[in-house]
């Protein structure tokens, strides 16, 4: 058979050490699963949550240490232009990359999950979720999936990560076994998730057919040669990829599943879907766009430009549709789901703005907004858990008179709402501002207009929370805020404001640790 | 056979292949007829009975008579049955049973298809029969048939897993999925055959194989006392015959497969016995396995369904996996150096 | 000693000090809360008065300028090439000049008066004052910020407290009013943000060579000065004509084409026009005037509306003098429309608060006229009109609050003959009315007169029409105020108590300032003297006069 | 290459023969066997009684759980087979990798065991 | 040769997509998704032999995709069973607890 023989590269012991963050999570998951199985039924499972949190934080520590280590002088090298670039660890024939890009994403995912676990510790009740132990330790493989997605340099690992994340979240969404809503949400999520992975795979299969490789770097090289001859197929491939990934990131018009699923899922899982799932899908989008699509332009067909334009249109649609649909929502979780759709639109903007002479990196804007989005969404949903525990439902009217029942929580909620609406002095404002400035650098002014307009529309429903909290009142009884949940609320609120007052250090830190050639243009550095 | 395989395909060659296939088919049908006869005889002797002895000399034509009877019996299809599936099921059961025989080698030179994924082919195709059984049970639209079919499916899939994993050790030692290579790789002395180094795998394989065949002590799907006749309760005439045929063709196949995988195929037990042709050794081993199957049928009682499932999942599966890793560690220490 | 302090920061953030104290006070102790809040507003007043005294108009406000890096978000610099840094640079840049100083004073004065007037608030004093002080921080910041994004942050900071103040403490339809306020101002600020983003990404770009070193610092700056300089300097890259053979703007990502300049200018005009409010966008303001609590309307009408005019001047006119000059006629017409529309509708209102609301629209029209004149007199007139209207409307709404507290109504038909039972309040009301209609000797006259005088220079017909509107002012003011003070008195109002001390003090203070400006306008014109020179120079250069 | 094609031709021939036999046998049988259907013959068999209710009864969900377990371990073999074939050529690390993979699956088995999936009760 | 495989896969995929979007029976919906995934497998295997640059990775990809599809189907049906217990129906149109 005339098949290209690829050399097999096995993982060595030292390579395995680089995977410490992932190993730690897996070991914790296995250990906790066994403990949960062997313990008698009556023992309370809360400690599993704390152990999960411990595992996540340990892993986070490893990721940060690795990030700093890669960028330290010892492992830095100089590239052809004489610039100092940081090292990248490539495992298994470059199918698993530990680079700054991945590490930054992993930090976001792990932080988010840690906050979500902490939030759950205060809000998950035994009568609601029968298998509390499972609930906690299933989050770990989900995060591992997200981390694999961020690290993958190969369509195969990318797909495995995607499915590891998806399948575990299917279960997590449906974990309230006896609630109809939960099961229904889980089913809808399974179906849309299945369709989306089929679409993604279909697109990938065409890409593979044209390039003959699944490694992103190899694809980048191959696609430059073949793009001209197979541009129709490439268009089809990119269309399918965009549609599939659009479902995963819940961007309009592929967002219809989001409200139902977010509503039916347990609230912390809603936060997980909104932040980690979405972020991980974006990690894929970034890699695919800058490794494959970016190199697919030919003189006769502006493939890359068309894809970028399509993505921008998708972003605009997400913003407009998300904000408009949220106007009518009375259910908080549905509302936040739709706001998540709009936010997916905002997050898509930097990805889909192509680079030019002045706009040399969109990653800083993106990760900045993702971090802010993490804080405000998780914070808001943490407040929602408190409210729905007190009110017994998820309707927005549950917020009525919150200011008089729990003033500090209401104050934190104001911070989240303002941040979501993009008003100063919150992280949300600078997140959007950086994205807008990025768009302005590429002279894509129309998307600025759309973005700002959708923000204004969103004021209406975000301030709906404020109206409820301050201008309505029901009972005067105080709302009980469990300590872990309160901790989450305050961490998020303070961080949101802190980023809103001083966004510079974070943005600089991200951009100092990110080099676009090393981390995204995998293909432009053959071999390595 | 090997020489034809290397030639360019022509219609003539295809016809030769076809004729070989027909010959094998005839052999297999003959085997089935007389396997049934001998089963009855052997069990009879073991139970101090004579067994069939009226039709033909020593009752040798008994099975032939049975087949003729089945052929001429009226064929009823229940009104409520799903007609298409009802008709499809027996054929669907039989086709894979016969098709798996294509990859079994008999001697160094006597084999049909020489596929390098032969073992996988066998495992994959034999799984299809499960579907046929469920289909038959479902299409009958009968409570007994349905439950029998479901049980049968549950049992077959439960034992398929240990069966499949138990041969992994053999595959590891050989480094190939080609059944011919596997048979060839086994040594000249009988203790070098796979059944000793792979004793755990061998035992699991045999147990699981018996269960896959739905034979005693694992014949629960057909448990007369509970389920009348299981999935084929509504079948009569020649459609019923095909289910029976399937079972016995699988007996043939499993016996041959066990011989190839574990008992050294056509190898003589010791180098000095090489003068006896390989095919004889193969047939001897093969016959022994067949006899063994009859033997346990006569000996063992039927086990309960919870015991059946427990055995499969809680004992055989962990053991099979353990076997894989024992083999791996053994190879790591002694073979790879 | 005082001059060593970062005086501008102190002014802006001193209310926060009060806010901190407020947070730790128990919410039942209304007296403590009120006292703290009033003191917290007094500090910026005193500081700004000192600043006014210290301000030297010939030198401008350079000495008070505060500059430190606020956001220095470095960007990925790989692809650009050999630069040592590449970043978004937004500065914490505060400054004062002739344009901001009067408005700063206005803010601090009205702030204290509103705080005093807020003692009427009936519920939730603690949160009221917290929002109130935050609002003051925002307003002060708006007038002092010299970085577009810092300006924007402060601008938005006024929005949120206003939403709460209207929505919680307002009258019957407070929520709708709050929503409408939020919606219009949100749109306004969003448009402003678009304009700023476009500006920063083009005109905000600067490349600094470090002398003696091979280092280049590239940055996108939000600095007002940088942007203004780039925009008005014909030699800068923003205005550099592209090579003739290439397409427009090709190769120079910072080039602002004519269309771009115009669109940014129009966006700014629209953004600040909504705030001002210019005629078709004024409806939110009526709602706010009618529904917000009187002390909040004092702030709103007294200061917040001025932010629109201030922004229009500083960003619209100063940054795009050429475009503004080209549109002078349009501005003037808009102003006249505002004057006439406001006056006519004020004439037919049955509610006193709405009369005042429409009169605000009308008076803001005069500001537009002043701006449209594009000469020193007119611009000074506009500024004085801003300050004077701020003071007058604050005073009027203070009185409205007092009257409402006593009578429970602001309907013109309900009120009448209050002069008998409330002689003091009525007297102040009459005087304030006179100031509003532009009686010489009071501040309103100076502003109107100078504005119209300035405009008369260039657009005579429009001026004439505007004067007609001003005459109408007299009609509606007299109609309503005379109706309230004199005329038949309803029996139930006979036993009303006249103003208490805490009401009288702010009334008299405000009136005193009104008189001061009316009699001696130089208190305001003096610091402004050199404020417009540079602008007018540029305009004249551009227009070639 | 010829060998490759020939091998699969043989496989195809075996499958064709497998299909032919039932077709031929049943067609031939049609000529030989009688056909005298009556109502009674065509009723569903239920030990001689009148059939009660539907034939397609609901059965235990446990069957599904076994199917699930089967899928999991069958898929494991998908990975186990290629691994086993190539095992000789690889180092110790490959063994560790497979041990981790299988270990995780065994945890799954333990899970099922502890959750009483493997315990059979009633039909 | 390649194009016939691709056409076949595309047809399968379209049937699957249609089924997943239109069919009312939840089981059929899940089946349709499997159909789509199988179409992809067909594509991958065809490309690995007849693609522009033939390589083995397509077959590897197929192995993984089969495994993952199995897991997905397992979870899907488990969820469906839980839902069936709660609602007593597998009609997709009746899963409308949350739409208001």
TrEMBL record, chain B:
Primary localization class, coarse: membrane
Stored Pfam families: NADHdh
List keywords of the entry alphabetically.
Answer: Cell membrane, Membrane, NAD, Oxidoreductase, Quinone, Translocase, Transmembrane, Transmembrane helix, Ubiquinone
Bilayer topology? Multi-pass membrane protein
The protein's Enzyme Commission number: 7.1.1.-
What does the UniProt function comment say about this protein?
NDH-1 shuttles electrons from NADH, via FMN and iron-sulfur (Fe-S) centers, to quinones in the respiratory chain. The immediate electron acceptor for the enzyme in this species is believed to be ubiquinone. Couples the redox reaction to proton translocation (for every two electrons transferred, four hydrogen ions are translocated across the cytoplasmic membrane), and thus conserves the redox energy in a proton gradient. This subunit may bind ubiquinone.
* The family this protein is said to belong to: Belongs to the complex I subunit 1 family.
Instruction: Provide the assembly information.
Output: NDH-1 is composed of 14 different subunits. Subunits NuoA, H, J, K, L, M, N constitute the membrane sector of the complex.
| Identification of the protein by name | NADH-quinone oxidoreductase subunit H
Species of provenance: Paenibacillus solisilvae
Q: Which gene encodes it?
A: nuoH
Automatic annotation (TrEMBL), chain C:
Location of the NADH:quinone oxidoreductase/Mrp antiporter transmembrane domain: 145-473
InterPro entries named in the record: NADH4_N, NADH_Q_OxRdtase_chainM/4, NADH_UbQ_OxRdtase, ND/Mrp_TM
* Name by which UniProt lists this protein: NuoM family protein
Record's keyword annotation contains Transmembrane: yes
Question: Which Pfam families does the record associate with it?
Answer: Oxidored_q5_N (PF01059), Proton_antipo_M (PF00361)
Per UniProt, residues of the NADH:ubiquinone oxidoreductase chain 4 N-terminal domain are 85-134
Key word Translocase present: yes
Family that this chain belongs to: Belongs to the complex I subunit 4 family.
Can you tell me where the transmembrane regions are?
6-25, 32-53, 99-121, 128-145, 151-171, 183-205, 262-282, 303-321, 327-348, 355-374, 386-404, 424-446, 458-478, 499-520
The record gives the membrane topology as:
Multi-pass membrane protein
Q: Which UniProt keywords apply?
A: Membrane, NAD, Translocase, Transmembrane, Transmembrane helix
Name where it's found: Cell membrane; Membrane
Automatic annotation (TrEMBL), chain D:
Q: What class of enzyme is it?
A: translocase
Q: Where in the cell is it found?
A: Cell membrane; Membrane
Q: How does it assemble?
A: NDH-1 is composed of 14 different subunits. Subunits NuoA, H, J, K, L, M, N constitute the membrane sector of the complex.
Write down the species. Answer: Paenibacillus solisilvae
Transmembrane regions listed in the UniProt entry: 6-32, 63-84, 90-113
Q: What is this protein called?
A: NADH-quinone oxidoreductase subunit A
Q: Does the keyword Zinc apply?
A: no
Show the InterPro entries listed in the entry.
NAD(P)H_OxRDtase_bac/plastid (IPR023043), NADH_UbQ/plastoQ_OxRdtase_su3 (IPR000440), NDAH_ubi_oxred_su3_sf (IPR038430)
**Enzyme nomenclature, EC number:** 7.1.1.-
Keywords, sorted A to Z: Cell membrane, Membrane, NAD, Quinone, Translocase, Transmembrane, Transmembrane helix, Transport
Instruction: Explain the purpose of this protein.
Output: NDH-1 shuttles electrons from NADH, via FMN and iron-sulfur (Fe-S) centers, to quinones in the respiratory chain. The immediate electron acceptor for the enzyme in this species is believed to be a menaquinone. Couples the redox reaction to proton translocation (for every two electrons transferred, four hydrogen ions are translocated across the cytoplasmic membrane), and thus conserves the redox energy in a proton gradient.
Query: What gene does the UniProt entry assign to this protein?
Result: nuoA
Q: Which family does it belong to?
A: Belongs to the complex I subunit 3 family.
Q: Which reaction does it catalyse?
A: a quinone + NADH + 5 H(+)(in) = a quinol + NAD(+) + 4 H(+)(out)
Pfam families in the record: Oxidored_q4
Instruction: Report how it sits in the membrane.
Output: Multi-pass membrane protein
UniProtKB/TrEMBL annotation, chain E:
Q: How does it sit in the membrane?
A: Multi-pass membrane protein
Q: Which UniProt keywords apply?
A: Cell membrane, Membrane, NAD, Oxidoreductase, Quinone, Translocase, Transmembrane, Transmembrane helix, Transport
EC identifiers of the protein: 7.1.1.-
Task: Give one GO molecular function term.
Answer: NADH dehydrogenase (quinone) (non-electrogenic) activity
Q: Which InterPro entries match?
A: NADH_UbQ_OxRdtase_chain4L/K, NUOK/Mnh_C1-like
Task: Report which reactions are catalysed by this protein.
Answer: a quinone + NADH + 5 H(+)(in) = a quinol + NAD(+) + 4 H(+)(out)
Q: Which residues form a coiled coil?
A: none
Subcellular compartments = Cell membrane; Membrane
* Keyword NAD (UniProt): yes
Q: Which Gene3D superfamilies match?
A: 1.10.287.3510
HAMAP family for the chain: NDH1_NuoK
Its biological purpose: NDH-1 shuttles electrons from NADH, via FMN and iron-sulfur (Fe-S) centers, to quinones in the respiratory chain. The immediate electron acceptor for the enzyme in this species is believed to be a menaquinone. Couples the redox reaction to proton translocation (for every two electrons transferred, four hydrogen ions are translocated across the cytoplasmic membrane), and thus conserves the redox energy in a proton gradient.
- Quaternary structure per UniProt? NDH-1 is composed of 14 different subunits. Subunits NuoA, H, J, K, L, M, N constitute the membrane sector of the complex.
Note the PANTHER family from the entry. NADH-UBIQUINONE OXIDOREDUCTASE CHAIN 4L, NADH-UBIQUINONE OXIDOREDUCTASE SUBUNIT ND4L
According to UniProt, the name of this protein is NADH-quinone oxidoreductase subunit K
**Organism this protein belongs to:** Paenibacillus solisilvae
Q: Which gene encodes it?
A: nuoK
């Amino acid at each position: 058979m005339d098949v290209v023989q690829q050399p097999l590269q096995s993982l060595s012991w030292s390579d395995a050490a680089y995977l410490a963050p992932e190993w730690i999570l897996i070991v914790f998951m296995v250990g906790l699963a066994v403990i949960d199985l062997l313990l008698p039924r009556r023992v309370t499972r809360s400690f599993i949550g704390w152990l999960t949190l411990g595992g996540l934080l340990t892993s986070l520590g490893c990721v940060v240490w690795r990030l700093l280590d890669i960028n330290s002088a010892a492992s830095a090298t100089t590239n052809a232009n004489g610039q100092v670039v940081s090292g990248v660890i490539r495992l298994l024939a470059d199918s698993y990359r530990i680079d700054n890009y991945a590490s930054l994403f992993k930090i976001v995912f792990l932080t988010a999950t840690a906050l979500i676990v902490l939030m759950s510790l205060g809000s998950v009740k035994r009568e609601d979720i029968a298998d509390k132990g499972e609930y906690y330790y299933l989050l770990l493989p989900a995060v591992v999936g997200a981390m694999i997605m961020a690290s993958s340099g190969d369509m195969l690992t990318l797909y495995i990560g995607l499915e590891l994340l998806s399948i575990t979240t299917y279960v997590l969404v449906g974990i309230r076994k006896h609630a109809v809503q939960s099961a229904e949400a889980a089913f809808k999520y399974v179906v849309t998730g299945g369709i989306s992975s089929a679409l993604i795979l279909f697109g990938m299969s065409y890409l593979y057919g044209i390039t003959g490789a699944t490694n992103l770097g190899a694809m980048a090289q191959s696609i430059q040669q073949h793009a001209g001859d197979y541009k129709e197929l490439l268009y089809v491939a990119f269309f399918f990829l965009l549609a599939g990934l659009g479902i995963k990131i819940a961007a309009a018009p592929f967002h219809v599943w989001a409200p139902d699923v977010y509503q039916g899922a347990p609230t912390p899982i809603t936060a997980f879907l909104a932040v980690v799932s979405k972020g991980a899908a974006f990690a894929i989008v970034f890699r695919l766009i800058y490794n494959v699509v970016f190199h697919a332009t030919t003189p006769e067909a502006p493939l890359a430009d068309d894809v970028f334009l399509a993505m921008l249109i998708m972003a605009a649609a997400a913003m407009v549709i998300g904000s408009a649909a949220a106007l009518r929502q009375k259910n908080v979780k549905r509302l936040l789901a739709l706001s998540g759709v709009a936010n997916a639109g905002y997050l898509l903007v930097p990805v889909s703005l192509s680079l030019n002479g002045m706009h040399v990196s969109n990653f800083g804007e993106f990760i900045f907004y993702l971090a802010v989005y993490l804080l405000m969404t998780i914070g808001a949903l943490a407040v929602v858990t408190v409210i729905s525990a007190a009110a017994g439902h998820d309707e927005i009217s549950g917020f009525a008179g919150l200011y008089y029942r729990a003033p500090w929580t209401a104050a934190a909620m104001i911070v989240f709402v303002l941040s979501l609406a993009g008003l100063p002095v919150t992280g949300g404002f600078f997140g959007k501002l950086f994205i807008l400035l990025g768009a302005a650098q590429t002279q894509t002014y129309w998307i600025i207009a759309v973005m700002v307009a959708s923000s204004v529309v969103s004021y209406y429903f975000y301030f709906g929370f404020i109206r409820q909290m301050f201008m309505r009142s029901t009972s005067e009884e105080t709302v009980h805020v469990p300590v872990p949940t309160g901790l989450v609320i305050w961490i998020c609120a303070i961080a949101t404001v802190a980023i809103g007052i001083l966004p510079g250090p974070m943005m600089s830190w991200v951009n100092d640790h990110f080099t676009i050639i090393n981390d995204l243009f995998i293909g432009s550095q053959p071999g390595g | 056979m090997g020489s034809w395989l290397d030639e360019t395909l022509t219609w003539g060659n295809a016809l030769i292949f076809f004729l070989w296939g027909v010959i094998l088919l005839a052999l297999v049908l003959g085997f089935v007829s007389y396997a049934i006869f001998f089963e009855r005889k052997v069990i009879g002797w073991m139970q101090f009975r004579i067994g069939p002895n009226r039709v033909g000399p020593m009752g040798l034509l008994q099975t032939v008579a049975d087949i003729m009877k089945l052929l001429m019996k009226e064929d009823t299809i229940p009104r409520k049955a799903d007609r298409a599936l009802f008709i499809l099921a027996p054929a669907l059961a039989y086709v894979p049973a016969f098709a798996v025989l294509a990859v079994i080698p008999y001697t160094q030179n006597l084999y049909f298809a020489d596929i390098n994924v032969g073992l996988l082919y066998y495992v994959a195709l034999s799984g299809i029969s499960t579907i046929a059984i469920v289909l038959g049970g479902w299409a009958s639209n009968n409570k007994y048939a349905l439950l029998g079919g479901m049980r049968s499916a549950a049992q077959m899939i439960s034992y398929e897993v240990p069966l499949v994993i138990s041969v992994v050790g053999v595959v590891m030692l050989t480094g190939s999925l080609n059944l011919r290579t596997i048979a060839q790789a086994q040594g000249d002395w009988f203790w070098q055959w796979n059944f000793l180094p792979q004793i755990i795998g061998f035992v699991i394989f045999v147990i699981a194989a018996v269960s896959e065949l739905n034979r005693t002590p694992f014949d629960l799907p057909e448990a007369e006392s509970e389920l009348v006749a299981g999935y084929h309760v509504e079948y009569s005439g020649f459609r019923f015959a095909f289910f029976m045929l399937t079972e016995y063709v699988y007996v043939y196949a499993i016996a041959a497969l066990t011989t190839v995988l574990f008992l050294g195929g056509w190898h003589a037990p010791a180098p000095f016995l090489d003068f006896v042709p390989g095919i004889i050794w193969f047939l001897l081993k093969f016959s022994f396995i067949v006899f063994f199957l009859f033997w346990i049928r006569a000996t063992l009682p039927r086990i309960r369904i919870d015991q059946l499932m427990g055995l499969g999942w809680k004992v055989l599966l962990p053991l099979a996996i353990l076997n894989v890793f024992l083999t791996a560690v053994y190879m790591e220490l002694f073979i790879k150096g | 000693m005082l001059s060593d302090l970062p005086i501008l920061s102190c002014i802006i953030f001193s209310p926060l000090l009060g806010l901190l104290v407020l947070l730790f006070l128990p919410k039942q102790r209304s007296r403590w809360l009120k006292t703290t809040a009033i003191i917290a507003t007094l500090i910026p007043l005193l500081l700004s008065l000192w600043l006014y005294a210290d301000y030297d108009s010939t030198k401008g406000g350079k000495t008070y300028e505060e500059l430190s890096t606020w956001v220095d978000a470095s960007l990925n610099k790989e692809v650009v090439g050999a630069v040592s840094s590449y970043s978004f640079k937004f500065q914490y840049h505060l400054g004062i000049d002739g344009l901001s100083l009067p408005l700063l004073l206005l803010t601090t004065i009205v702030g204290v008066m509103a705080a005093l007037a807020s003692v009427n608030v009936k519920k939730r004093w603690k949160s009221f004052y917290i929002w109130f002080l935050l609002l003051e921080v925002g307003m002060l910041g708006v007038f002092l910020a010299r970085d577009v994004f810092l300006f924007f942050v402060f601008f938005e900071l006024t929005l949120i407290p206003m939403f709460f103040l209207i929505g919680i403490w307002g009258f019957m339809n407070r929520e709708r009013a709050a929503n409408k306020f939020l919606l219009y101002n949100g749109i306004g600020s969003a448009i402003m943000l678009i304009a700023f983003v476009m500006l920063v990404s083009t005109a905000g770009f600067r490349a600094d060579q470090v002398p003696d070193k091979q280092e280049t610092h590239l940055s996108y700056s939000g600095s007002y000065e940088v942007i203004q300089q780039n925009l008005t300097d014909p030699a800068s890259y923003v205005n550099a004509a592209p090579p003739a053979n290439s397409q427009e703007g090709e190769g120079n990502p910072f080039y602002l084409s004519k269309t771009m300049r115009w669109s940014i200018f129009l966006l700014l005009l629209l953004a600040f026009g909504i705030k001002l409010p210019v005629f078709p966008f004024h409806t939110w303001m009526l709602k706010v005037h009618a529904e917000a609590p009187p002390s909040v309307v004092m702030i709103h009408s007294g200061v917040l509306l001025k932010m629109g005019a201030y922004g229009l001047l500083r960003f619209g006119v100063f940054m795009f003098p050429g475009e503004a000059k080209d549109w002078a006629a349009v501005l003037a017409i808009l102003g006249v429309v505002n004057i006439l529309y406001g006056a006519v509708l004020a004439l037919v209102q049955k509610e006193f608060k709405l009369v005042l609301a429409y009169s605000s629209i009308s008076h803001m029209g005069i500001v537009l006229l002043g701006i449209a004149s594009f000469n020193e007199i007119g611009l000074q007139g506009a500024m004085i009109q801003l300050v004077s209207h701020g003071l007058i409307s604050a005073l009027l709404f203070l009185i409205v609050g007092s009257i409402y507290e006593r009578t429970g109504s602001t309907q013109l038909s309900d009120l009448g003959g209050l002069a008998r039972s409330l002689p003091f309040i009525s007297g102040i009301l009459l005087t304030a009315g006179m100031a509003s209609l532009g009686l010489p000797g009071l501040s309103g006259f100076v502003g109107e007169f100078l504005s119209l005088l300035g405009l008369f220079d260039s657009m005579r017909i429009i001026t004439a029409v505007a004067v007609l509107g001003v005459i109408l002012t007299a009609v509606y003011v007299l109609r309503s105020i005379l109706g309230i003070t004199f005329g038949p008195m309803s029996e139930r109002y006979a036993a009303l108590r006249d103003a208490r001390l805490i009401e009288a003090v702010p009334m008299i203070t405000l009136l005193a300032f009104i008189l001061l400006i009316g009699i001696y306008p130089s208190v305001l014109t003096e610091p402004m003297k050199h404020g417009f020179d540079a602008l007018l120079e540029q305009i004249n250069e551009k227009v070639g006069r | 290459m010829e060998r490759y094609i020939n091998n699969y031709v043989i496989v195809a021939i075996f499958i064709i023969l497998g299909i032919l036999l039932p077709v031929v046998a049943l067609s031939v049988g049609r000529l030989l066997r009688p056909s005298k259907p009556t109502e009674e013959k065509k009723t569903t068999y239920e030990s001689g009684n009148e059939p009660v209710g539907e034939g397609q009864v609901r059965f235990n969900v446990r069957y599904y759980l076994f199917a699930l377990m089967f899928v999991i371990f069958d898929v494991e073999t998908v990975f186990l087979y290629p691994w086993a074939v190539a095992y000789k050529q690889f180092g110790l690390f490959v063994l560790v990798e497979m041990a981790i993979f299988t270990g995780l699956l065994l945890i799954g088995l333990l899970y099922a065991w502890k959750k009483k999936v493997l315990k059979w009760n009633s039909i | 040769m390649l194009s016939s495989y691709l056409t076949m896969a595309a047809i399968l995929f379209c049937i699957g997509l249609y089924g997943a979007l239109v069919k009312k029976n939840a089981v059929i919906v899940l089946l349709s998704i499997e159909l789509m995934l199988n179409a992809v497998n067909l594509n991958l295997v065809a490309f690995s032999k007849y693609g522009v640059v033939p390589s083995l990775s397509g077959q590897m990809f197929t192995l993984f995709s089969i495994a993952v599809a199995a897991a997905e189907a397992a979870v899907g049906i488990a969820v469906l069973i839980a839902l069936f217990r709660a609602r007593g129906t597998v009609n997709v149109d009746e899963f409308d607890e949350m739409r208001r």
